[in-house]
Amino acid sequence: MYQKTVYSDKELLEGIANGDTKVLEYLYKECFKTIRHLVVSNNGNIEDAKDIFQESIIVLLRKVREKDFRLTSSFTTFVYSIAHLMWLKELNLRTKRAVPAKTTDHYTDEELQLIDTINRNERLKLYREKFEELSENCKKVLRMFLNNIPIKEITKIMGYSSDQHTKNRRFRCKKSLVLKIKNSSKYKELSNETHKNDRNLPRW
Fold this sequence. Notes:
This protein is mostly helical and about 200 residues long. The protein contains nine helices and no strands. The N and C termini lie far apart (about 45 Å).
């Protein structure tokens, strides 16, 4: 079967927005080698490179789906930029080194926007990770509330004695989730990074 080997930026944009597996495979073929070199050449290994590539694609998906997204470079350059910023951030967290103050123009506007998306992606990833640690009942209750299912219906589905019991259950589950998130080392790292200001990340 014929398989397309070259995509225009428009085709890539549409393919990424729609989660087209062939387009994502094309990006892997075009981008992974340079990202692997970036990571392995700067105190990382192959597994680190795979993780960074996968997370970069997730960030890329989020950016592409933003209404005001505009591509100002090739897609391969854009993916590399995301990976570069993510690996800088990871190295900074690993070494715990003090970050010297920099001027606000240390990064371009586009890089600052990417950093913001990376941070939001990491917070969402942490939320999902801790959500999965909850009991099955808690996950079910919270999912139904998030999907705006009426309390009376949730009470009936869960077999609880009253709507008040359902509300109390939601409160306890939400509190448990918040505690799991706040007690994680990743939450502390993300909080510290927020206070330091991401635009101050060091460059190579």
